[in-house]
Amino acid sequence: MRRIRKKWIYAGAAVIAVSGLCSLIDHQSELNEVLQLTVTRCEEYEIALSDEPEETLQDWQKINSDVRYVLEFSEADRQCRIPVLAASDPDYAMRHNLYGEYDTMGSVFVEDTGTEIDTADNLIIYGHSSKTKDWCFTFLKQYSDPDYFQDHPLIILEGTDARETYEVVSFGRYDLNEEDTWLGWGSPSLGSIEEAREMFLQSEPYLIQKRRGIAYHGQRVLTLVTCDMAQEDSRYVLQAVRKVFL
């Protein structure tokens, strides 16, 4: 158990480093709003269900070869397909879109640590939230509502070789200012099935919503992380597990 905790401490340090720019980006957004600057291209990710066919993963990769996945979620009147970059420099990804332009909403990205991302036990994807627009990962905040949580149980992850369905199992909030805040969700390597189950158990005190009845047998975990724009240095975290079709 001590080894597991040490691994999670290192992971927590990485989470703080990656997401520490949220408040800075928020201040920049407010300044650009006053100056009436065009600061984001996030509208491109949202597609009304009646519109033309959406961009494919291959379409996004023609724009930026670092696009690794497309994250898809649907609601009653819209569908969003968000390109996900593999970013070797998270600070840059948080300030620039996939076109390489300065963008206050940055990119949605997974940190490329030099290991094989596609085989990570826990795929951690980061994205900014907005105070005023439903851009990037702003939609995650809706999972705090019990009805929304129950009505939106699935997220699709499209990669080069597969299109995977993930079942949302939990949604929580973590305050990085609290000294003992547990950050075990920030480790891409979960180790054994027992260690992964321990991770889910340790997350329970921080959960706002939880879905029961989903069995975990070692399938891949998807973790989506965004800022709580109402409070600096707090993070919303959604976790889902790959759906096993019997």
Q: The biggest beta sheet, please?
A: 8 strands, mixed, barrel
Number of strands: 10
Radius of gyration: 17 Å
> Mean pLDDT, nearest integer?
80
Q: Name the structural class.
A: alpha+beta
Tell me, what's the shape? globular
Alpha-carbon distance between the termini?
33 Å
**Poorly predicted residue ranges:** 1-10, 32-38
Number of helices: 6
CATH domain class: Mainly Beta
The CATH H-level superfamily is: Sortase
Order of helices and strands: HHEHEEHEEHEEHEEE
**At the third CATH level, what is the topology name?**
Sortase, Chain: A
Number of folding domains? 1
β-strand percent reads 25-35%
Strand order of the largest sheet: 2-3-4-5-9-10-7-6
Q: What is the share of helical residues? A: 10-25%
Q: Which CATH architecture?
A: Beta Barrel
Short summary:
It is built from six helices and ten strands, in the order ααβαββαββαββαβββ. The chain has helices at residues 2-19, 22-34, 57-63, 90-93, 146-151, 193-203, and strands spanning 46-47, 67-74, 79-87, 108-111, 122-126, 154-158, 163-175, 207-210, 221-227, 234-242.
What does this molecule look like?
The chain has helices at residues 2-19, 22-34, 57-63, 90-93, 146-151, 193-203, and strands spanning 46-47, 67-74, 79-87, 108-111, 122-126, 154-158, 163-175, 207-210, 221-227, 234-242. It is α+β, with helices and mostly antiparallel strands and 246 residues long. It has one domain: Beta Barrel (Sortase, Chain: A), CATH 2.40.260.10. The chain has an eight-stranded mixed beta barrel. The two termini are 33 Å apart.
